[in-house]
Amino acid sequence: MKWRLIALIVGALAILAGAVLIAHASPLASLQSLFHGSLGTPVAIAGTLKETTPLLICGLAVFIALRAGLFNIGVEGQLLVGACTCGVVATKFHGITGMVLGVICGMIAGTLWALPAALIKAYRNGHEVITTIMLNNIAMLITSMLVSGPLKDKAQSDTATPYVDANTRLPWVYSNPPVQINLALVLGVLLCLGMAYWLKKTVGGYELQAVGANRTAARFAGISPQKVTMVAMSISGALGGLAGAVQVLAYEGRFYDGFSPGYGFDALGVALLAGGNALLVLPSSLLFGILSKGGTALQIDGIPKGITTVVLGLLILIAAAIRFRQVTKDA
Amino acid sequence: MLNLIELTILFSTPLILCAMGGFTSERGGVINIGLEGMMLMAACVGALVSARFGAVGELVAGIVAATVMSLLHWLMTQKYNLDHVISGMAINAIAAGGTNFLYLKLSDPAHGSNLPHLPITLFAITGIALPFILWLYSKRTRGGLWLMAVGSDPDKARLMGLQPSNVRLWGLLATGLFTGIAGVELVAYTGVFTDNMTSGRGYIALAALIIGGWRPIPAFIACVVFGFFSALRLQLQGTPLFGAELPPQIWASLPYLVTIVALAGLLGKNRTPAGLGRP
Lengths: 331, 279
Description:
The complex is a heterodimer. Chain A is an all-alpha fold. Chain A has 13 helices and 2 strands; from the N terminus they run H-H-H-H-H-H-E-E-H-H-H-H-H-H-H.
């Protein structure tokens, strides 16, 4: 199996090198600008950490569904409705109340958005990948409709909701402008630790992973796969909504049309790369943060941003191939 | 009224072709979420080649591009034993990013939005004939029965002396062919490639296949129904309903909504090929 993995990695690198050649750039120079743009300066590092925050929380959302054997491709849509709801709620209230209510309402919205997919999967056995993708498309269209119509702030020329008050925004834990790190990142890290604990040490976490490992066996052990499917998708949706809410309260300050550059999709790569360990979501999301921030630097060099999505796809393949190798070794 | 029928055919054709690509793959036991990516890749490469080598070159290049993606899926699921859904998602990501990259770097902006293309009628006829051909093929020919056998029970098929991964190779080559034609058709009637132009059609086609119980003719009917709703959207968009004009986004989400409702309500008897996703 080893030579196959090596062949896969070599193939992936060949594709990337080919792409860089097509773009008439030098592979080494692009790699350099990728890392310089993401880790080269304190400002770049802060930017990378900013990108990492939604990827981490969304990554956890995909991860928990994946542990229950579900592919929640719908995190993108859950993030959008969460962010939109939070953007509206947080402008109606002020200070801590607005912050807390915004986050809670965002999470509820995310859960509700995941619910149809969860119900169809649990009780009709309709594949969650298809339903969540449909829900993504609908979320994109509906939020776009809302911010260009009823929710639009008349004071701005953009299609966006009004800005959230400064005292409703999530505070910075480290602020030395232009280098700033938001509480949101700390929140994400704590969530990650919490999830690792929950999955490893509690009955609920055990049941969830039992269903993910083998639905039939779990059913014979007295665990209801339907219930676990509902729980896992609800948590996943809530986390997706949370990612959106936090993105509004920490960084963006408002919801606007085209809010997410695809965090929900990148999160899929984050979770798959992390494999079976919740703690690995941390380094995995950081890697994607680097790719995402560095991708912007590449764009300035004339390499289209699509290349980072190709890297994501190749990384998914390689990560999954490595995981398989481990499975056979254990068996 | 005639316009509505025309539009329905126009919108159903890529769905049907794509769903039939899904049929040859999934009946052989390979879950194929990657239909979307294969179609997108075909559309992009087709458009790039069409500008230089004309309509026939477009068709050939589109089919080759989709087949390459399809073969990658075969390699990953059959040789690397990857989870089929993961491989499909990776293919979609590679196609989404790759087409963005290739088109920005290689397209010739002078061509605008009138690339040479084959007549749309040709695609429509293929789309209408294909489900019936595949139905006969899967019921009446040795190759078709092999494919069904491998998809229904790979272990028993092995006992009968079939090598599932080899049979699936042929299934996935057909998937490449059909999704390739579907992608080229999309470029043919819009006349230009745009980023993510498949906009979920691959998934809708897959939903149609599932709702149709993995059978070509019911899947064909499901595709036509989805096509009809897309056509309806285009016809009704902008006309007032119950005294108020609905925003275009509501109409645009109609096909996706119909897919969800259909998946929630129409899944009756479990017709899932028993070997789906198994090695």
